Amino acid sequence: MEKKVSILLAEDDVNLGSLLKQYLEAKGYSTDLFNDGEKATVGFRSGNYDICILDIMMPKKDGFAVATEIREINTTIPIIFLTAKNMKEDVLTGFKIGADDYITKPFNMEELLLRIEAVLRRSGAWENETVTSYKIGKYSFNTINQTLQFQDGEPEKLTTKESELLRLLCANSNKVLERNYALKQIWDDDNYFNARSMDVYITKLRKKLQEDSTIEILNIHGKGYKLIVGGEE
């Protein structure tokens, strides 16, 4: 993605806030951290963000108050709430205000990342920032035309499912593509039949990429798949 997705992060726990900011920036996101609700509100008014991640329990203004003000300014920006509470009332309040997702502390960093990506895709925030072509070893992959080309050969047309799956693998090149995440992104459901269907498409992609021996699509047991390019893991 050419333009970095910009995140407003509001978290009053200094250690957790710093850790989240470092993690998100390491994953390619531009992240501004605010340690209270009042600063977060001022920051939102003066910044240009693609998504907001708000802790609920914050000094000066809580996450609900911040989200309410954000919604008055921007009705569509995605909002994810972070909270140490797992109260049904909080969940309902958050969704009534217009939250897109909700995650309870303590949480896994990778889970938060997957939720951010899913919310951004649903909101369309990535539509104009998605990479349209990938270099995979000796192959060129065009996501718009859905074509795969080996060196100077003729471009091969991929099916939509093949193209979507290869795009996710490329976006996570040399990293694990979570199986359930891929199923929900492409098939909208991670049931058994869709999982078997995805296995078939993985086999097809392996055959299409077999001309370059430095490319592998590995099965990562219990997790998903990993596209290895150039022998690097």
Describe the model.
The model has no long low-confidence stretch (mean pLDDT 86). 41% of the residues lie in helices and 22% in strands. It has helices spanning 14-26, 37-46, 63-73, 88-97, 109-123, 160-171, 179-186, 192-208, and strands spanning 6-10, 30-34, 51-55, 79-83, 101-104, 133-136, 139-142, 147-150, 156-157, 176-178, 216-220, 224-228. Helix 6 (160-171) crosses helix 8 (192-208). The longest helix has 17 residues, at 192-208. Strand 6 (133-136) and strand 7 form a beta hairpin. The protein has 233 residues and is of the alpha/beta class. It folds into 2 domains: 6-123, Rossmann fold; 133-228, Winged helix-like DNA-binding domain superfamily/Winged helix DNA-binding domain (Arc Repressor Mutant, subunit A, Orthogonal Bundle), CATH 1.10.10. The strands form 3 sheets. It has a 5-stranded parallel beta sheet with strand order 2-1-3-4-5, with helices on both faces. Strands 6-7-8-9 form a 4-stranded antiparallel beta sheet, with helices on one face. The chain contains 8 helices and 12 strands. It is elongated.
Distinctive features:
Arc Repressor Mutant, subunit A, 2 domains, five-stranded parallel beta sheet, alpha/beta, 233 residues, Rossmann fold, 12 strands
User: Helices and strands, in N-to-C order?
Assistant: EHEHEHEHEHEEEEHEHHEE
Number of strands: 12
Q: Give the radius of gyration.
A: 20 Å
Q: How many DSSP H or I helices?
A: 8
Q: What name goes with the CATH superfamily of the largest domain?
A: Response regulator
Structural class: alpha/beta
| Average pLDDT score | 86
Percentage of residues in strands: 15-25%
Helix content: 40-55%
Domain unit count? 2
CATH level-two architecture of the largest domain:
3-Layer(aba) Sandwich
Q: What is the oligomer described by this structure? A: single chain
Question: How many angstroms does the end-to-end distance come to?
Answer: 22 Å
CATH topology of the largest domain: Rossmann fold
Reading side by side through the largest sheet, how are the strands ordered? Answer: 2-1-3-4-5
